[in-house]
Write a structure and sequence with these properties.
Elements: H1 10-19, E1 28-30, H2 40-46, H3 48-52, E2 63-65, H4 73-94
Antiparallel strand pairs: 1-2
Protein name: Thioredoxin domain-containing protein
Length: 95
């Protein structure tokens, strides 16, 4: 986990814009492989950003945004565990 200040200076704001950060806090998980946070049918109907969930689609490769309520620690912990398992699965299958 890392804390990053998007309002520190212009470079930080540019990085956060590229990462698709629209609100605080935004939780991103960076893993070893691609994450599919949208599907073709929902993307065609709602658009790519809205089809991923309330936080929107992740714009950086190999990252995925948390779409739940960050105020529930168990929800965040379960998500981190699931993303870690998916990342490990990808790493095992790509070696």
């Amino acid at each position: 986990m890392a804390l990053f200040d998007c309002e520190r200076d212009e470079r930080h704001a540019k990085l956060c814009g590229a990462a698709g950060v629209k609100h605080y806090p935004t939780l991103l998980y960076a893993g070893s492989g691609e994450y599919r946070d949208t599907d073709p049918v929902t993307s065609a109907v709602l658009g790519k950003d809205k089809s991923a969930g309330p936080a929107g689609a992740s714009t950086l490769r190999r990252t995925v945004k948390f779409q739940g309520d960050w105020r529930y620690g168990d929800q965040v912990l379960d998500w981190v565990k699931a993303m870690r398992a998916l990342s490990g699965w990808h790493r095992l299958n790509s070696e």
